[in-house]
Protein 1
Amino acid sequence: QLQLVESGGGLVQPGESLRLSCEISGFTFRSYLLGWARQGPGKGLEWVAGVYSDGNTYYSDSVKGRFAFSRDSDNKRVYLQMNNLRPEDTAQYYCAIGIEVKPSQPGYYAVDYWGKGTLVTVSE
C-alpha cells in the first residue's frame, strides 16, 4: 500500500530556508512524476518540483533557482530544499506522485497521489 509522509514545514521569515522530507513506502510505479506539489490559500494543487521516471527533473517557473529536489536512489525518501522563501510560497506542501499523463497540466502529469501535507508559512 502506497504511503507518503511529509515532514519539515514551519514558519519562517522571507529570505530564509526550509528543507522538506518525505518517506515513501509501497512505491511500484514505472512511469511517473515523483515530487512535491503545493496548495496555497485559495489556489489549486500545483506541481512544484520533482523527477520523472526517465530521470529528468521538473521545476515550476515560480521556484526555479530557489528550490532543489532530491531523492534517495531507492525512491524511499525525497526532499525539497527551499531557499530564499517568499510570502507567496506559503502553502500546504504535499509529497506527490503523478501517473496520469496530462499534457495540458504543468509537469505533464496529474497529481494522483499525495500525503497529508506539511504547512509552510513565510511571513515577517
Note: The radius of gyration is 13 Å.
Protein 2
Amino acid sequence: QVQLVESGGGLVQAGGSLRLSCAASGRSFSSYALGWFRQAAGKEREFVATIGRVARSRIYADSVKGRFTISRDNAKNTLYLEMNSLKPEDTAAYYCAAGAYRTTPSAYDYWGQGTQVTVSS
C-alpha cells in the first residue's frame, strides 16, 4: 500500500508559477513509476506527466511540455511538479498517482486526494 498526499496548489495569475508536492508513505515508493494527472470541472481526468522509478525517463503531455517539470526524490518519498508560465487552461484539480510508467489513469494503482490549481487571466 502507498498513501499519497498532494500539496502546493492555490490561486495564481497567468504567467505565474507553482510547485506541487506529493508526499508518499507506505512501502516501496521507489518501486513505482509516478504520475501527475489533472481534472478540470466537467472534464475527464487527463495525463500531465510521468516519471520512471529511478527518474531516468519522463513523459509529458504536449499541452505542458516545456512549461512543467516532473521530478522525484526517492530518499524523501516525494514527487514534485514544477509548473511555470501557467495558463488559465491549466486550472484543474491535480492528482499524483503511483503505478506503471504509462500515460493512462488505469495504469496507476494508488491516488492522492488532489490539490486545486486555479490560474486567473
Note: The chain has a mean pLDDT of 96.
